[in-house]
Amino acid sequence: MLIVFGIIWTIGLFQRPRLAHNGLVGGSSPSSYTQTLKPFLSDKKQFIHLKDGHSSGPISHLWSQGVVSAEAFVTHAGFRKRLRAKVKSLGGCFETCLPKSTEKVERDTYGVVYGIMRKPYADGSLGLPFFSKVSLQAAAERIAQFGIPLSVKLIKKPASDS
Questions:
Q1: How many Å apart are CA 85 and CA 31, to the nearest integer?
Q2: What is the structure's pLDDT at 162?
Q3: Do 116 and 62 form a contact (C-beta atoms < 8 A)?
Q4: With contact defined as beta carbons under 8 Å apart, do 118 and 125 qualify?
Q5: Could you tell me if 20 and 94 are in contact, meaning their C-beta atoms sit under 8 angstroms apart?
Q6: Residue-level pLDDT at 82
Q7: pLDDT score of 161
Q8: What is the pLDDT of residue 20?
Q9: Rounded to whole angstroms, what are the CA distances from 34 to 24, 26, 54?
Q10: Distance separating alpha carbons of residues 139 and 18, to the nearest angstrom
Q11: CA 9 to CA 148: how far, in whole Å?
Q12: Which strands, in side-by-side order, build the sheet including 46-52?
């Protein structure tokens, strides 16, 4: 499994927490995952998944990414060990945000945050397509089974952004 991290500052979306970006690409076994995961890890112990949510397809993919990353973090000690080792190599506060592979994950101290960038509707409001709301229910139930809090943030895209 290849793990790539880079420390960045946000542009005000989540009250400027310090973040580490995590891009994971793996093989076909449960410990290496075939799906690409690209969450940000905040110093507030949030795994933040961002997506340009122009339609239901990418948003449904986002729900799946959150479920897979939560499952890997909670159920696979080897994943946590590799993740912690990579984070440790960066320095900063992030190593202390992650449990050792031998420690129990205190699930309620972590969170999954879905950030969906959307253009406003004609009336100026923000919302999710109907199918995205329906498919979110299954992802939310699965993440709840792991005992990890979940939140969804809609982010207004600028009018000039396509």
A1: 16
A2: 54
A3: yes
A4: no
A5: yes
A6: 84
A7: 60
A8: 55
A9: 9, 5, 24
A10: 26
A11: 24
A12: 2-9, 18-25, 40-42, 46-52, 111-118, 150-156
What parts of the chain have a pLDDT lower than 50? 1-17, 23-37
Tally of CB atoms within 10 A around 71: 18
Strands 111-118 and 150-156: parallel
pTM for this prediction? 0.75
| Residue listed under structure tokens 């409001």 | 125
The closest of 45, 37, 51 to 19, measured between CA atoms, is: 45
- Residue showing tokens 């440790």: 88
Contact predicate 110/148, CB 8 Å: yes
Maximum Cα–Cα distance across the chain: 52
How many C-beta atoms surround the C-beta of residue 60 within 10 A? Answer: 20
Polymer length in residues for the chain: 162
pLDDT at 37: 46
